[in-house]
Amino acid sequence: MSDISIPGVSSKYKTDELISKLVEAEKIPLTRLEDTKKTYESQKEAWRELSVLTSKVRESAKTLYSFENPFQEKKATSSDESILTATATREAEKGSYSIKVKKIATADRFLSDSIDKDSEIPKGNYVFKVGEEEIKFSFSGGKIKDFVDRINSRGKDLVRASLIQQTPDSLVLLIESKKTGKSNKLLFDGDAKKLAVDLGIIKPVPNNSYNFDAKADNIQAWESKLSDTAYQIAENSLIINPQTELKLPINPSINITDSMVMELTINIEEIPEDNNTPSPPPGPDLPETEGVTLDDVTVEGAPADIPLPSWTPPPPPPRVDDNQIFFLLRNNKATPLPAITKGPFPKKITISLSEYMSSIDGIGIRNKNTHKKIEVSDIRIYDPAVRGDYVAKNPISSADDAEIILDGIRMIRESNTIDDAIPGTTLDLIDASDKTVKLKIEPDKEAIKDAIISFVGSYNRLMADLNILTQDNEDIIAELTYFSDDEKDKAKENLGMFRGDSTLTQLKSKLQDIMINPYPTRDNTLKLLVQLGISSNASKPGTGGYDRTKLRGYLEINEEKLDQALTGDILAIKDMFGNDTDGDLVVDNGIAFKTEELLKAHASTGGIYDIRIKTLDTRIARTEKDIEDYKEHLEDYEASLKRKYGMMEGALGALEKNSKAIDNFSNSLNNK
User: Fold this and answer.
1) pLDDT digit string (tens) for 101-116?
2) Distances in whole angstroms, Cα of residue 209 to Cα of each of 335, 337, 338, 383
3) Count of structural domains, the chain
4) Residue 294 phi, psi dihedral angles, 5° rounding
5) Which of 184, 204, 224 is a domain's end point?
6) Which residues form the Flagellar hook-associated protein 2 C-terminal domain (predicted)?
7) Which end of the chain, N or C, is more open, meaning fewer C-beta atoms within 10 Å of its C-beta?
8) Which alpha helices (H) appear in 419-533, and where do they start and end?
9) Per-residue confidence band for 9, with pLDDT thresholds at 50, 70 and 90
10) Are 375 and 384 in contact (CB under 8 A)?
């Protein structure tokens, strides 16, 4: 009895190993359920990736036919971006412009004299004005740095201050306006005015300016007699007739400062020349010859027959063209100002006066021309740096307007950003120059090309995914040279996953049809995508065969041909991708429109992909429930085995105990 044993019933007899093997055998259905769940999850992930790729194609397609399509985009190109740059909106018209930047808009920027670095700013109420706006604040007194910080905290978009280290022990204070233009001059008021004087930012100046008032009392003869017909006055304008000169007296005289200028508007009008030859003058009146009467007989006198000399018409007066029009006068001494050589007219001119004379008491205007009238108005002499009764002592720049000549038209603006000169275009002035800049506004061909390339790229990536999912040929993956190693590994896992799925095979076929079909455009000669250099190009030149890789629905772009097509009718290309064929202002045809319309049923919420994913979610949930139920079954099964084999181990133990008792009893009998 001691040799009785049941292998595997107890630990002594490998009971645990037997139970484990029985449980493992019972786990086979669980493994199948888990594999099924993994398959569902892989399929769900594949549908999600397909949905993402499809959505990208939809987005790139929409870009080509939506309201904000790139075919309406414009690009502004400057021939010299160191002078000006420009940006064009969709509303800009195609065209070319000639622009000369005479001046850029500037802001007031004033430096102080040298200041001790430990200077204190007194307590007070400080006011700074820029144009019609102002900032004001109270300062309780303190270090100049604290004062600068207070200006900047309250300055908003008007005023900025900064300290410049001049020497280890001295500073210079810079105060500047943040707004450009003549109308935005920086002024100091309240305690700020006194501080500006004390720090050497501004200094007082006497009133030293002149404005011409077009009245006869303000006009005098210059070097020759002034006739009543020499000039006319009309609406504050002075018109000087040909071969006339006059003087505009200035009393009291003006002392010219370094920044003083003379501004005026001039218009030069051509007078048509009279080419008619004058008639000869009439001859002298000759008295009639008296008759003679004798014996009632009268003999009439014969008419006078006196030969007159031949008449030669006088030569026409010589034509005179003279561009030297304006002069500065002082004690009857005349200094010519720059000649007016170019139009267009009327135009405003500004002349710096400091290089000509130190003081003036009049302006001379001379029209030597025989065939031109000269009209001047808005004559003004002033110092642009003057702020009321003060002038900047150390100006870096003074508030001034920008001035440009656009296709011969003079324009003045207070900002260097000009958005009302060319419709739909914003000019950004960088620097003044005598150079004429050519500005070209045209369709943004690069944006169009990028959008088309993006569409083709997203289309090809979707087509690659469709090929991978519906076919089990590994050549498909090998052909995709742009795939990374990770993408190739993922593609191998998905290869042929939906082989035989009619939904995807039909989608692929319909996409290919869209790409090869003709579409109506405003140019009857442009209907096919291949005419833009975009095609499958599957045929092998010279072989009569086909490249199998190009039969998989991919597109390729001949960039040279696409670039050439974009030099033609851009709007016809637009029609090919999206066109309103019935005039209701809604796009209803075109490659991009058809593509987006087809894919909408697949990738939109509630579409085919969404339904497939939700179906798989249901299957995954049901499988997870089956897995959990089966795991509970395995736990019960294992517990049942352990209970049964435990009982068997107990019975075996009792048998062994009885066996030993019998053996002991037998042994005791034998010993007797």
Assistant:
1) 999 999 999 999 999 9
2) 19, 18, 21, 7
3) 4
4) -140, 125
5) 204
6) 399-655
7) C
8) 445-470, 475-479, 485-494, 502-516
9) very low
10) no
